Structure to design on (172 residues):
């Protein structure tokens, strides 16, 4: 967890010095597959803040914070809800002036969940791992763009968390 926060602070420091950046709000449909079996599709509302490392806006960094919106059942009566989701990522984009820009992400993600059991009671489970993602930005105006993204947030010890995000973003 400390490594995650150190990486997030390391990415946030250039944001203070660099005036070129972006912020966005995403609706995230997650798929949580614990190692004990089953899968659930809870949703998250995610805020992201990013900055560009170079002037051509091909390399950047971003931090994300998400809060759970909705829960879902694993199929055995256990409901899963994402309480919080944090991440810090490096972002690489193709250098072009087209209105569609594909990008890739690499970073770390932490997902905190609550499992409510049918028989009563609940437990918390946290997932964290190296994350990889691909996405596409669609330019609407010079300051506004839409995004669609797939992120393999967690894939460790049999646990998997995958995210499909749709976002509205602004450049500053």
């Amino acid at each position: 967890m400390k490594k995650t926060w150190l990486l997030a602070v390391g990415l946030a420091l250039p944001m203070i010095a660099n005036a070129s950046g972006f912020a966005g709000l995403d609706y995230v449909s997650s798929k949580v597959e614990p190692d004990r079996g089953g899968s659930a599709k809870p949703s998250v509302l995610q805020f992201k803040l990013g900055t560009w490392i170079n002037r051509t806006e091909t390399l950047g960094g971003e931090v994300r914070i998400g809060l759970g919106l909705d829960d879902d059942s694993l199929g055995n009566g256990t409901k899963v809800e994402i309480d919080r989701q944090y991440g810090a990522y490096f972002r690489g984009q193709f250098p072009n002036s087209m209105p569609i820009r594909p990008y890739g992400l690499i970073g770390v993600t932490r997902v905190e969940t609550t499992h409510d059991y049918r028989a009563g009671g609940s437990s918390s489970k946290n997932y964290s791992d190296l994350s990889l993602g691909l996405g596409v930005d669609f330019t609407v105006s010079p300051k506004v763009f839409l995004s669609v993204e797939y992120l393999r947030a967690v894939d460790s010890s049999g646990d998997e968390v995958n995210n499909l995000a749709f976002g509205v973003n602004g450049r500053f």
In short: The chain is about 10% helix and 65% strand. The radius of gyration is 17 Å. Strands lie at 21-33, 43-52, 59-70, 72-73, 79-93, 100-116, 122-139, 144-156, 159-171.
